Each structure stands twice: as C-alpha cells, then as structure tokens.
C-alpha cells in the first residue's frame, strides 16, 4: 500500500468517527441536563413549538393581565415587510400553548410601551421610514424647512414632488406633501411681530451625483411662485448630502386592550418618536422620553406626557432634558425617576450619558458617581432589584457607542436610599455582554440570559459570532451570581425575556447583523425557548385558591391557601413590557404577611412610587423558596 493510500484510509476513519464521538458527547449532555439533580440546581430549558404561521420577529414583548404574552414585530426590522405594510403582532397563551394573530394597523416597530393603571398597554411611536445607508443614497437629500411669512391666506399645502431651487439653479423635490401654517402675529411691547409658519419635509435632489450637494445652510425658492407668494414662501436647509438617512419615527399611539386583544388608537404623540422610553409616573400619567424624529434626528430633549383619562399626549416643556434613545428609566419610591445610564443605540456620544436621579416635579437632575466602564452603557440593561423596597438598581454589561467591538462584564449596583447614592461594584458577568436580558423572579433573585459579546452577535476577539449561551441568577442578598443551565438559542439585538405567571421565563428574538460566516446578512431568530428555574424542581408548589381581584395600596387582603402553614413570603410582581432590554415596568414588591390556618393576609405598601397602580402577579413562596403559580390582582 502506498503512503498516500494509507493517508486516505486514515482520513476516512477520522471523518467517519467524528460524528460518533459528537453524538456520544451530545447524548451524555442530554442525559446530564435532564437529570432531576441537574434541574434542581441549574433549571431546565425547553424549546417552544411555534406553529409556522406564528413565527414572528419578536421586537417587543409584554405580559398581559390575562396571562397571555403579547409579541410585537411590526415590520420586524425587515424592509420588505415595511414596504408591503406587513405588520405583525401575535399573542401566545402559556396555559394552552396557543397562538393568535392580532391585526396591527401601523408600524409599531421600535415604539415605546408601558402598562397603564387599568392594564392597557400604551404603545407610542414606531417606524415611519427605514434607514438608507450612505452607499444606497443616489440623490443628495436633506431636511427642508418651508417657511411662510404671511399671516394671511391660512395654511398652504404643497404636494409631493414640489420643486425647490437653490441659488445655483439645482432642483430638489419634496418626498411627501407638506402643509405650512400661516405666520402668526404677536404683540411685544406695542410692536406687532410676525412669526413665520414653518414645516419640515425631506427633499431629494432631482439630479444624481455631487453637483446638487450643499454642505452649508442656504435658502431655496419654491419653483413657480410669483408676486407676494414668492416673497413670503421659501425653503431653508442646513445641508443636502449623501449622508446615511436614519430610521424615521412615527407619531401614532395606541392603547392595546388585553381583553379585546386589539390596538385602540389614542391621540397622536406631539413629536414623532423612534426608540422612545415610556415610563409611568406615580399619578398615572406616562412620560415619553427621547427618540428619533421623523427625519431620523434625535429629539433635543423634548419629552411629553400622556393623560390616560383624556387619552391624549401633551407637550411637557417643563421636562426638557436630553437622553440617548431608549434610556433605562426606573420609577423611584419618592416619585423621582432614576436614569441608570443604560440606553440603546442613538444619540450624542457625550451628552446625556451620565446616570442620575431625575426629579420630574422640579426637572432637576442629580448625577450619580461611581459607574465603572461609563463609556459602555449602550446596549446595557438595568433593573430595579427585588424587592423594590430596597431601592437598588443594577446595571449589567453594555458596549461601546455605535458598532464598537468593545463590551464589558461589569455590573454595578446603586442604593438610591443613600443620602448621596453612588454605584458600587457588583459581581462580574462570566463574559462581556451586550443585550443581556434580566428577569425578576418571585424569590427575590434576578435571572439573566442571552446577549452577545460583540455588536449584534457579531465579531468579538476574532470570532465572527459572539452569542452567549450561559445563563446565571443574581442573588442580591449575596451580591453574587450562581450558574444556571445554558440556553440553546443565541439571542442578541432585538431579543427579550419575560417572567410568566407560572414562574417560568420565556425568551424570544435575536437579530444578528451577520450569519455564522460573518459575511452574509444574518437571519432574525424566530425560535422561542422557555426556562424553568431551579425552584420548579424542588418540591410541591404552594397554591393560592381564592382571594380578591383588587387590593388597595396601603391596605390588606386575605388569600386562601391550603399551604398557609409553610408560606414564608409574598411578592407582587409587575408584569414586564420590554424592548431593546429596556423595561420600565417590571418590579417586585414585598408584602407584609400574616399566616392563619388556611389563609394568608398580605399588606400592600402605601407609596405609589413603590407600587404604582396596575395589575400585578401575586406569588406566595414557601419556606424552601418554591413559588406558587401567580394570581392576578389589581392594585388601586
Ligand atoms: Cu431596534
């Protein structure tokens, strides 16, 4: 036998053996993770079978007080879906494993959302236009402000395709129709001042190439106007270039009704918003904070307020403050708002990045010191640690600004009850992580899962893919992580995890920029996994068999349980509403507890900043930390 033939034979043996070795290791791993002792210690993951027609790009998720999971894609970061106006929302019922489709009227992709006191989910903003990358911009484009100096003649409407001309004779066409209000007259100290009416619109150069590019502010005439019109109506623009055009925000707003399972339109936002954070305040109003406007520009600090009784948005100039998009905000016990420093994706690289306490009554902002890796707050997550009474917030992971390859293992914890709150070191994550999902569990621990070390699951330290499969549970009492079972699906950008009423955690989404090779476009992750924490393998669960549907803040309520003798604690968990690892809703509130023979009496704290009005899951935990299935109660 020649040397070459021997080599070939050996190669065949090696190739033939490899799958057998892998299959052996795989079988051993499967055996290990399914053992009772393993599940008791690390928990257990299971893949959820999702019928074909209900596989969507999960961008937003919320747990409704019907116990069902609202999964919102909108156009799902898919340009074709956007252009076809194919917007998706599905509802998953964890008690029956059934999915249903919900009609989605507009593109709520990248809206903000939070629960209202009555349990409706307020969803505001979304996508008006998709981004256009610099390489795809053929015609120079920019935002044109059309001004109207005439107080007479009412608003003026200009159709799509209206031409504006530069001094050098280049023509630019409006992308949409635009209505310009009349000028307004105001008297200042006896003199009448005229303030021009104005409206903004995208314009695209009529000709391709560089000739129509304008890099400085300039004035433009509206083609075809004569006489007084030509003097009173004109355009001004800062620049018309081939620069990348960012996603544009929408101004639609809905209350999603969990019972009728439909979107109900409310008054529009005052500003278009893409990537806003919505946060409920103690009185029941909601603030919309930050976002990109309809032209993809970050809002320069204009925030607004939703009045749930009137179902409309009002300007809040008294709360002018600049934040990057999707700021990580948490309602504090005293009604102030803590900005953890977490944010997602857009904004100045210097302004608005320092965490602090925002007093929304006086619009004062007090920065807090101590955050390590302060330049890696983008795509970090933050969470009000359990129980809410401790007023501690944790920030986890995060990465450098934009498509930075940098990310951090850092977690820091701040105690907002201190006189001068400051972040202090928490335990490191096992690996640097962006987009980490954090989920409060009823036993006062925090489950963390998913994320990637690199930007959108991509390149990190030479590896083209960087999804993280390790999960861990943070225990605030020990300020330490314990290891949990590995997930089997990688989840990075546009992914989320939420606690279910049965104590499990559902994980969805994932939007890698590239595939495994790092060369081709990635595919949105549509598989769903469910994690059963270790507490579900540690003995019989206590049960709640009766009790009121409503409890009053500061009041007590009695719940029937055959397990009263071993109930050790009671918690109200506010259901999650999460997108881009931003969740202003989830919190866990400790209740006072008195046991009798077959009932427990719980006491709800008094402060609305601790227990904002709304629907909660009541969990009872036994003396070994095993939780009941939750019972829904409304706090008034
Ligand atoms: Cu996004």
Explain what you see.
With 636 residues, the chain is mostly beta strands. The protein contains four helices and 49 strands. It has a six-stranded antiparallel barrel with strand order 9-16-12-11-17-18. A hairpin with a 5-residue loop joins strand 6 and strand 7 (121-124). Mean pLDDT is 95; it is low at 1-17. The structure holds copper (II) ion (CU). Copper (II) ion is lined by residues 110, 494, 580. Copper (II) ion binds at residues 110, 494, 580.
Please give a handful of descriptors for the protein shown:
636 residues; mainly beta; 5-stranded antiparallel β-sheet; 49 strands; globular; disordered N terminus; binds copper (II) ion
Task: Record the SSE blueprint.
Layout: H1 3-33, H2 36-42, E1 44-48, E2 60-63, E3 69-74, H3 79-83, E4 88-93, E5 98-103, E6 112-115, E7 121-124, E8 127-129, E9 141-148, E10 156-158, E11 163-165, E12 171-174, E13 178-180, E14 184-188, E15 191-195, E16 197-205, E17 218-222, H4 227-232, E18 233-237, E19 248-249, E20 253-257, E21 262-265, E22 277-280, E23 286-289, E24 304-307, E25 312-315, E26 329-331, E27 337-339, E28 356-359, E29 364-367, E30 381-384, E31 392-396, E32 411-415, E33 423-425, E34 437-440, E35 446-449, E36 471-475, E37 480-484, E38 495-499, E39 505-509, E40 528-532, E41 550-551, E42 556-560, E43 567-574, E44 577-579, E45 587-590, E46 592-595, E47 599-603, E48 614-622, E49 631-635
Parallel strand pairs: 41-49
Antiparallel strand pairs: 1-40, 2-3, 2-44, 3-4, 4-5, 6-7, 7-20, 8-19, 9-16, 9-18, 10-13, 11-12, 11-17, 12-16, 14-15, 17-18, 20-21, 22-23, 23-24, 24-25, 26-27, 27-28, 28-29, 30-31, 31-32, 32-33, 34-35, 35-36, 36-37, 38-39, 39-40, 42-47, 43-45, 43-48, 46-47, 48-49
Bound molecules: copper (II) ion.
């Amino acid at each position: 036998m020649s040397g070459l033939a021997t080599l070939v034979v050996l190669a065949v043996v090696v190739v033939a053996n490899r799958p057998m070795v892998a299959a052996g290791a795989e079988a051993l791993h499967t055996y290990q993770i399914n053992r009772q002792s393993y599940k008791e210690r690390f928990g257990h993951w299971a893949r959820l079978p999702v019928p074909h027609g209900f596989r969507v790009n999960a961008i937003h998720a919320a747990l409704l007080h019907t116990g069902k999971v609202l999964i919102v894609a909108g156009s799902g970061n898919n340009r074709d879906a956007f252009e076809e106006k194919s917007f998706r929302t599905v509802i998953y019922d964890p008690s029956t494993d059934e999915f249903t489709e919900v009609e989605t009227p507009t593109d709520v992709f990248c809206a903000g959302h939070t629960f209202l006191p009555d349990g409706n989910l307020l969803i505001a903003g979304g996508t008006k236009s998709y981004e256009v990358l610099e390489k795809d911009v053929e015609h120079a484009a920019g935002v044109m402000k059309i001004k109207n100096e005439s107080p007479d003649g009412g608003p003026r409407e200009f159709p799509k395709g209206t031409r504006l001309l530069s001094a050098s004779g280049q023509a630019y066409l409006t992308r949409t129709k635009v209505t310009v209000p009349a000028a307004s007259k105001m008297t200042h100290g006896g003199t009448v001042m005229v303030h021009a009416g104005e409206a903004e619109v995208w314009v695209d150069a009529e000709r391709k190439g560089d000739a129509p590019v304008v890099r400085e502010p300039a004035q433009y005439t509206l083609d075809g106007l004569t006489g007084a019109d030509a003097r009173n109506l004109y355009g001004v623009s800062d620049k018309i270039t081939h620069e990348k055009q960012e996603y544009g925000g929408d101004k639609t707003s809905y209350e999603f009704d969990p019972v009728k399972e439909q979107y109900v339109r409310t008054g529009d936002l005052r500003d278009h918003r893409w990537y806003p954070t919505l946060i409920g305040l103690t009185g029941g109003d909601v603030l919309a904070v930050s976002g990109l406007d309809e032209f993809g520009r970050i809002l320069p600090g204009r925030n607004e307020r939703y009045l749930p009784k009137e179902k409309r948005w009002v300007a809040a100039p008294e709360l002018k403050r600049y934040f990057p998009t999707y700021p990580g905000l948490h309602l504090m016990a005293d009604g102030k708002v803590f900005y953890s420093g977490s944010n997602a994706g857009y904004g100045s690289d210097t302004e608005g990045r320092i965490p602090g306490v925002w007093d929304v009554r006086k619009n004062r902002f007090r920065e807090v010191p101590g955050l390590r890796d302060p330049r890696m707050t983008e795509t970090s997550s933050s969470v009000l640690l359990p129980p809410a009474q401790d007023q501690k917030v944790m920030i986890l992971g995060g990465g450098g600004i934009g498509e930075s390859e940098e990310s951090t293992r850092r977690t820091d914890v701040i105690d907002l009850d201190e006189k001068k709150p400051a972040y202090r070191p928490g335990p490191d994550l096992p690996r640097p992580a962006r987009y980490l999902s954090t989920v409060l569990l009823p036993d006062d621990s925090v489950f963390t899962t998913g994320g990637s070390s690199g930007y959108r699951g991509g390149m990190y330290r030479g590896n083209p893919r960087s999804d993280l499969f390790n999960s861990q549970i943070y225990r605030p009492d020990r300020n330490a992580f314990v290891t949990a079972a590995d997930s089997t699906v990688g989840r990075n950008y546009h992914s989320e995890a939420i606690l279910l009423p049965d104590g499990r955690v559902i994980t969805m989404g994932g939007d890698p920029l590239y595939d495994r090779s790092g060369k081709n476009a990635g595919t949105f992750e549509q598989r769903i996994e469910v994690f059963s924490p270790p507490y579900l393998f540690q003995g019989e669960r206590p049960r709640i068999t009766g009790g009121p549907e409503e409890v009053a803040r500061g009041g007590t309520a009695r719940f029937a349980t055959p397990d009263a003798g071993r109930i050790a604690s009671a918690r109200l968990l506010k259901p999650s509403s999460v997108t881009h690892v931003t969740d202003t809703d989830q919190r866990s509130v400790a209740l006072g507890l008195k046991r009798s023979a077959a009932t427990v009496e719980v006491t709800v704290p008094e402060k609305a900043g601790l227990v904002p009005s709304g629907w909660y899951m009541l969990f009872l935990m036994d003396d070994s930390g095993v939780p009941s299935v939750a019972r829904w109660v409304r706090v008034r």
